[in-house]
């Protein structure tokens, strides 16, 4: 008769099995916990957030930044970002411990989408008419988001994809081009509507997109209000008689928009169950840096690093647009503005840090920081 196993031999035989069971339990636990560790980031809007979508559409160099010296500071090559380096969305991703969020149209990035997607397009507006045919408008960005949702469901499975969408943070920077484009083109649209009606149209389109995303499971939203648009270098030079002063007609539209946006978000928070938002006061914090650059470590608050003409307000950076001549400063970090309409990486980093920590929050009724939205899982 065969000898019965002793207790020590039984333990030796079972040890590999025990280790396997422990490994499986740990792996299963990790798989369940991993999705709960990080929220995703979805970006919508314009050049303040566009990570390079316009590289992949048929447009002009007015709406592209895929040439030197764009990207020279951080990436050491042009990426399509309208800056010398990173944008607000890049810094927010870093603070949230996410990788850089890829542009939706960049080939071969499907496997990265669980961390989020960037749909923003330089030149885009909330109105379909804004630079129509040259950019990816907000409604088209929403369409891309719906496509991404379908693909995420196929890639991750229904439950995981729904988790990604519901825990994600949806960041918006939109409206600037709606109010600047009439001054930069031959459009007569502002003569067809009162200022309040025009702002109402922009806000109405934005509202519709927010509600669509909410209907698909989005609950956490981050918004950037508009800067005093008439004080951008490219806007200061539009009317020679202004002698470089801010174009108040544009800044007044931004002010009306910001007031309407603030009211809208308070309203939506009361209307939509679970809707949470952070509203960053880009306007005030931008003005502080342009009016008092030395306080924030800059030497130049009004003139751009790259461009030509007064304040380097002629949009010629890189020499591939209508005007070929341009000058380039030696140290972009000394400037608030990178080119005629966009900021330097250093300026974006300062503003992104405020958004993240809540230092520049606009709404006292809902004083959330972006950090709190990402941590609210």
Q: How are the SSEs ordered, and which strands pair?
A:
Blueprint: H1 7-37, E1 41-45, H2 88-95, E2 116-118, H3 138-156, H4 158-167, E3 169-173, H5 176-184, H6 189-192, H7 195-215, E4 220-224, H8 233-236, H9 248-271, E5 276-280, H10 282-291, E6 300-304, E7 306-307, E8 327-328, E9 335-337, H11 345-357, H12 370-375
Parallel strand pairs: 1-2, 1-3, 3-4, 4-5, 6-9
Antiparallel strand pairs: 7-8
Please describe what this structure looks like:
The chain is α/β, with parallel strands linked by helices and 377 residues long. The chain has helices at residues 7-37, 88-95, 138-156, 158-167, 176-184, 189-192, 195-215, 233-236, 248-271, 282-291, 345-357, 370-375, and strands spanning 41-45, 116-118, 169-173, 220-224, 276-280, 300-304, 306-307, 327-328, 335-337. The strands form three sheets. Strands 2-1-3-4-5 form a five-stranded parallel beta sheet. The protein has a two-stranded parallel ribbon with strand order 6-9. It is globular, with a radius of gyration of 24 Å. The protein is 42% helix and 9% strand. Residues 1-36 have low confidence and may be disordered. α3 (138-156) crosses α4 (158-167).
Short description:
With 377 residues, this protein is α/β, with parallel strands linked by helices. The chain is built from 12 helices and 9 strands.
């Amino acid at each position: 008769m065969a000898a019965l196993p002793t207790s020590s031999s039984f333990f030796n035989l079972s040890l590999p099995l025990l280790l396997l069971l422990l490994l499986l339990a740990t792996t299963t636990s990790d798989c369940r916990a991993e999705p709960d560790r990080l929220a995703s980031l979805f970006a919508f809007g314009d050049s303040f957030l566009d990570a390079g979508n316009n590289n992949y559409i048929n447009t002009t160099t007015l709406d592209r930044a895929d040439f030197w010296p764009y990207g020279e500071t951080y990436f050491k090559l042009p990426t399509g970002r309208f800056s010398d380096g990173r944008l607000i969305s890049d810094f927010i991703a870093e603070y949230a411990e996410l990788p850089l969020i890829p542009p939706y149209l960049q080939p071969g990035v499907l496997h990265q989408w669980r961390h989020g997607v960037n749909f923003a397009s330089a030149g885009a507006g909330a109105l379909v008419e804004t630079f129509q045919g040259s950019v990816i408008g907000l409604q088209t960005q929403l369409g891309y988001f719906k496509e991404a949702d379908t693909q995420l469901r196929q890639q991750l499975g229904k439950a995981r994809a729904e988790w990604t969408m519901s825990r994600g943070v949806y960041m918006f920077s939109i409206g600037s081009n709606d109010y600047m484009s009439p001054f930069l083109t031959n459009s007569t649209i502002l003569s067809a509507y009162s200022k309040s009606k025009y702002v109402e149209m922009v806000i109405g389109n934005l509202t519709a997109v927010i509600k669509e995303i909410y209907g698909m499971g989005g609950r956490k939203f981050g918004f950037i209000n508009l800067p005093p648009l008439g004080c951008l270098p490219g806007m200061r030079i539009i009317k020679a008689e202004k002698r470089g002063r801010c174009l108040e007609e544009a800044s007044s539209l931004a002010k009306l928009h910001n007031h309407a946006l603030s009211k809208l978000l308070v309203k939506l928070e009361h209307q939509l169950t679970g809707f949470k938002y952070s509203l960053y006061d880009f306007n005030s914090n931008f003005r502080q840096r342009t009016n008092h650059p030395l306080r924030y470590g800059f030497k130049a608050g009004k003139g751009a690093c790259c461009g030509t003409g007064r304040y380097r307000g002629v949009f010629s950076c890189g020499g591939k647009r209508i005007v070929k001549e341009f000058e380039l400063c030696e140290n972009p970090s000394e400037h608030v503005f990178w080119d005629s309409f966009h900021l330097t990486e250093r300026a974006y980093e300062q503003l992104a840090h405020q958004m993240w920590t809540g230092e520049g929050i606009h709404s006292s009724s809902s004083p959330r920081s972006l950090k709190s939205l990402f941590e609210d899982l």
